[in-house]
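request received
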Amino acid sequence: MVEEPTKAGFAGGGDRKGEDEQVVNPWEVTAKDGGKIDYDKLIEKFGCQRLDESLVRRVERLTGRPAHVFLRRGVFFAHRDFNEILDVYERGEKFFLYTGRGPSSEALHLGHLVPFMFTKYLQDAFKVPLVIQLTDDEKCMWKNLTVEESKRLARENAKDIIACGFDITRTFVFSDFSYVGGAFYENMVKVAKCVTFNKVVGIFGFTNEDHIGKISFPPVQAVPSFPSSFPHLFSGKDNLRCLIPCAIDQDPYFRMTRDVAPRIGYQKPALIESSFFPALQGETGKMSASDPNSAIYVTDSSKDIKNKVNRYAFSGGQDSIENHRKYGANLEVDIPVKYLGFFLEDDAELDHIKKEYGAGRMLTGEVKKCLVEVLSELVERHRKARALVTDEVVDAFMAVRPLPQMFG
Amino acid sequence: MGRTRRHPNGSGEIGHFLGGLEVALVYSLYAIVSQLRAGFPLPLLPLLPRSPQIDMGYTKDQLLARLKELQIDFVCYDHPAVLTVEAQAKYVGHLGGALSKNLLLKDKKHRYYVVSALANTNIDLKVLSQRLGLGKGGLRMAAEEALQKILQVPLGCVTPLALINDSARDVSLLLDQGFKSQQSCYFHPLTNEVTLSISASSLDRFLISIGRQPSYVDLEANPAVGKDNPPDLASLVPSGLPTLPDKVENAVVTSIPTGNDGLTVEKPTKLAVEAKRSAASQKEKLQKVQSSIDPLAEATNIEKLVKEILDKTSTAFLNEITKDLNDPQIAPSVSDVVKRRVSSDLEHMMMSLKNAAYTQGFQAGFQATLRSSLQNLSMPR
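response:
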């Protein structure tokens, strides 16, 4: 997820030379020269694979249903070992899902929901269990929040996450402050023993000035990939594979995890990675918690949504109607069309809009109107579902309990 | 615990959810139908084959009407519903016609066979299986669901007349040659509450009229099958591809049929064991991991539930609407549009319901355990 750069986190990979390289790591995402993120370069640099059409078809075949919009439209576009997970599934064995959130703010926007919407689809399509990690300790350290505040934010964020429609009989939500200990902590130590200080500096860009909390944090995000970290769920299933849907800026954590796993006798987790959700003002703009107009929040009313889209959504249309009819819209930079690519389910309708708008026959106003409708429906549905997630529901999701139906 | 918590209305009241469902469905269907009536063209949607719910199997009356059209003589005897030949015999056994026992069988390649025989003919499934070229254990009783899905008749009502249904087009029919020497034969006309008396030649005429060649077989014969003697009934194995979904195949035979299938008491246990064994090996062969059928898991399967609700509702609606609409072909595609619009919202609402109900149960369980632990603590030793 695109986060504002923090004081401590800077370039990942240790090979950043000035501003002319794009920067992608868990704490900062900046494009080169204020342009767009080059995903091909990113895939090459990180060493992951492109998710091609044939894999999408294979998923459809194995799950017996159409692929999720995000797969069809290339939002989730890269992976590591996803084909192996599909092999495993095809053989009749199962796997489990792992995703998470750093609860840094109360307000979630649509971009935050993207990985969770996709994870829900994976849970329903493959009928597999899911663990969701809330890294309240991370935010306590990086954002300098109090322990109480970060715990509170974790619970509040949990409600929005649960409202995405996860199945309580197959989902375990946990926050680090509550859960770390026991077998989970044992795995953390096993992982920590395999990663030198030099290595974390190389991967995450830590310096001598960073406090030791940060430096020892990475194992916390690594070990939920191992089934033995959850003895109440997966005891006896040490070979269970893990699939991690996440945004591509989280790749460094799991590169480290995949490197360590075989050395401690565990399976490497597989990854399926998404591109970044663009800010309302355009790809080059920054989504930031301090600017409410940079994103659509799940708490926005229909009026807010209409206002934000109409006034702030960056348009690729021409400056005058005559020019627009003549040249058509620039679909590369147009935000409403990009957002529709994420949230408009109907492929035919989206293609129609792209065609007409790109040719200049459809005006920006129309596209924005369509987007407002789609977003309002989405936010309204989320709001309704969220209202039904009480503290008791959160407690139940977070209870350390067996999940007998998790593979059913 | 002094915290006050606001409990939103929805989390405990089912009425809230159904209200939303009804409103959504009714509104969607109404909106579409009123547009149709006003003459608005619907977006061009592929016309789908009529869904099974609309394409119900033939009723007894429809069957009898067809026999009359063909000028086939028959007599009907009404009686209370019967599930076995013995029970049927109580009502019509004294009338001089030949009672029949009827089996629905299936082979390992999911092909189905109706074997219709005189009540006292001995049927050895192993022999039959070899004569059909299916090997020694190739035939077993079909699952209950198959009766419904393929023949569209209830339990205990297997009958050659069920082949009138299109769903049975790939089913092979084996008739006992003993029928030919009988003046009249007794079969169920798609219901257990009636016995139809008909001559073998009339049955032939009926079968020919629905595009079938009647095949009479000496069911008790036991010819050697080997290299020099090819299976003599091999031509009766269906050649068309079956169209059933896999679900039917996995259901293990739930009841041991002693009914109209007329098996003697010893045979059921052997067959049941055989059926269980081949079902078990089929299960192993299947790639997918299938948990034993847990009724609670079935009941909380949201997608299935939503699909059933929408299917039932749209069928009911369509049955009412098609009376008014000029073009009954539009109706199924309308229902698909509606289903697509409503499914997603409905699934989300159901998931909220499921999570809320689980939470309530979880709390109750926790409280119950707490109470019982506290009680145990305070018990005098």
